[in-house]
Amino acid sequence: MEYTDQYAEVYAPFEKQTFDHALVFLPTPHEEWLGHPFQSLRNGGSLNEGSTLYAQNLGPTKQFATIDAYPNRTPYRFTYRGLWDNGKGQQITPHLQSLDIRNGSHHRFTTTVGDLGRLSSVRLSVNKTEIVSYHRGSDASKEKPVTVRWDVNGTHVRQRIFKGRKEQ
């Protein structure tokens, strides 16, 4: 895959989407350097004007602070699957999704983790307390996705259902 082909794949969701007062969180494949590889996804001269405001996805605390700072914008998250390797042949699958902001004292979540790709393990934890941990087996092609359902309130996180790999 050519370098420019990789860019065309990554930018495809933005060509199909029309934004009206959006806040788009971008991944940081080169740490906090937003200028690369997303050169065309940049803010204009003002952070309060324009149809789209782009921000780095620097984790939940900063993400919520950014959403709070721009409450009249519709939040989106842009991600991609694959390794950003500067056009060395890696397939990139981009995804742009609208985010729902929910308020309340209790929430129920479902998290599904599929093919680990180059990763060898996954750990779900809250406040440094491990909820689920597993490691990829020797034959990863036969492994199924892992689904965890959990309840969250103001003080506790409780795992409800664990499906897929055996909990370790």
Secondary structure: helix percent:
10-25%
The end-to-end distance, rounded to whole angstroms, is 39 Å
- Alpha carbon gyration radius: 18 Å
The class by helix and strand makeup works out as mainly beta
Q: What is the N-to-C succession of helices and strands?
A: HEEHEEEEEEE
Identify the quaternary structure here: single chain
Question: Could you list the spans in which at least 5 consecutive residues all have pLDDT below 50?
Answer: none
Strand sequence of the main sheet, in spatial order? 2-1-3-4
Mean pLDDT metric: 76
β content, as a range?
35-45%
Major sheet summary line: 4 strands, mixed
* Helical run tally: 2
| Net shape | globular
Number of strands: 9
Textual characterization of the structure:
The chain is mainly beta. It is built from two helices and nine strands. A hairpin with a 2-residue loop joins strand 6 (121-126) and strand 7 (129-135).
In short:
The protein contains 2 helices and 9 strands; from the N terminus they run αββαβββββββ. The chain has helices at about 5-15, 60-70; strands spanning about 20-25, 50-55, 75-80, 95-100, 105-115, 120-125, 130-135, 145-155, 155-165.
